[in-house]
């Protein structure tokens, strides 16, 4: 049996009992370590699960999946995924590969940013399509995310923006030369994300992401303890002007607030506003919210 097990959002204790039982029964345990990261080390997981863990980087998951699947038709093998197993298409590909090899698969779910984003006070059924925002380079600035945000905005829906992480990535030079030399990990910050969003708005000029009148909510380490989880909200302009330390440690996410904004959402999120008065004024004047 191949088990694909969600680990949740924070640390080794977020595992479900069903997931822990599957790990205990497995002859090999892999940790997928590039679509997201946990807030604790591999060693802490190993100590808690009492199992050796093999880190599966992007190269292993995408090009050496057969190594992970090897023997899973005769014994239990576990692939651990931060958040929920179906939070990334990579894991669907693993399931399809297993099916084609007649390997039984069991998925064990857990919390992910896709539902934990409700911590900011916005109602989950008012969210539209989720988008990813990658690091821009001098020659590559993909803007397809903008179309999805525009579609959501047209329906008044919120947009969850997942910010890029670069873990075990090679520079273009090292990649071209075939050198297994990796760059230091990088995690996109909220100010950088806002800057990139507004850069594309300045090129598109469709008034989807207006700096002064678009409300947004920044989230950091959702699911962590009270000292590590951060929620900060305001206009895009306000968020872009805050120092990075205001938003806490990575991982970060950003929500673009849609116009189908309920007054209870406004009131709940107000506690996290950079400026409560500005938050309420924009909600009233631009979003049409009726507030006391």
From TrEMBL:
Alphabetically ordered keywords of this record: Methylation, Methyltransferase, S-adenosyl-L-methionine, Transferase
Domain of life: Eukaryota
GO biological process, one term: protein histidyl modification to diphthamide
Binding, S-adenosyl-L-methionine: 9, 84, 87, 112-113, 163, 222, 252
SUPFAM superfamilies referenced in this protein's UniProt entry, alphabetically: Tetrapyrrole methylase (SSF53790)
E.C. number: 2.1.1.314
InterPro entries found in the cross-reference section: 4pyrrol_Mease, 4pyrrol_Methylase_sf, 4pyrrole_Mease_sub1, 4pyrrole_Mease_sub2, Dphthn_synthase
Catalysed reactions, semicolon-separated: 2-[(3S)-amino-3-carboxypropyl]-L-histidyl-[translation elongation factor 2] + 4 S-adenosyl-L-methionine = diphthine methyl ester-[translation elongation factor 2] + 4 S-adenosyl-L-homocysteine + 3 H(+)
Domain Tetrapyrrole methylase: start-end pairs: 1-190
Biochemical pathway: Protein modification; peptidyl-diphthamide biosynthesis
A GO term for molecular function: diphthine methyl ester synthase activity
Top class in the EC scheme: transferase
Primary role: S-adenosyl-L-methionine-dependent methyltransferase that catalyzes four methylations of the modified target histidine residue in translation elongation factor 2 (EF-2), to form an intermediate called diphthine methyl ester. The four successive methylation reactions represent the second step of diphthamide biosynthesis.
HAMAP family to which the protein is assigned, alphabetical: Diphthine_synth (MF_01084)
Family according to the record: Belongs to the diphthine synthase family.
Protein name: diphthine methyl ester synthase
Species of origin: Scleroderma citrinum Foug A
């Amino acid at each position: 049996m191949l088990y694909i097990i969600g680990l949740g959002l924070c640390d080794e204790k977020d595992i479900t009992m069903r997931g822990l039982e599957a790990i205990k029964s497995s002859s090999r345990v892999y940790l997928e370590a590039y679509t997201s990261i946990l807030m604790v080390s591999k060693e802490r997981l190993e100590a808690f699960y009492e199992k050796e863990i093999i880190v599966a980087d992007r190269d292993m998951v995408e090009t050496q999946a057969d190594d992970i699947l090897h023997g899973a038709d005769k014994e239990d093998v576990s692939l651990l995924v931060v958040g929920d197993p179906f939070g990334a298409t990579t894991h669907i590909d693993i399931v399809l590969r297993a099916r084609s090899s007649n390997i039984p698969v069991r998925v064990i779910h857990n919390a992910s940013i896709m539902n934990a984003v409700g911590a900011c006070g916005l109602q989950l059924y008012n969210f539209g399509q989720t988008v990813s925002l990658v690091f821009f380079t001098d020659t590559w600035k993909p803007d397809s995310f903008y179309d999805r945000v525009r579609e959501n905005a047209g329906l008044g829906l919120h947009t969850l923006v997942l910010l890029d992480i670069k873990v075990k990535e090679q520079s273009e030079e090292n990649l071209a030369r075939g050198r297994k030399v990796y760059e230091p990990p990088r995690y996109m910050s909220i100010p950088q994300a806002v800057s990139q969003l507004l850069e594309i708005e300045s090129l598109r000029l469709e008034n989807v992401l207006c700096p002064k009148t678009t409300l947004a909510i920044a989230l950091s380490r959702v699911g962590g303890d009270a000292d590590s989880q951060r929620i900060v909200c305001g206009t895009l302009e306000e968020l872009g002007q805050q120092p990075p330390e205001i938003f806490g440690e990575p991982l970060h996410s950003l929500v673009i607030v849609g116009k189908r904004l309920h007054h209870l959402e406004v009131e709940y999120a107000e506690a996290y506003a950079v400026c409560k008065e500005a938050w309420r004024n924009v909600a009233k004047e631009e979003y049409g919210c009726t507030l006391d």
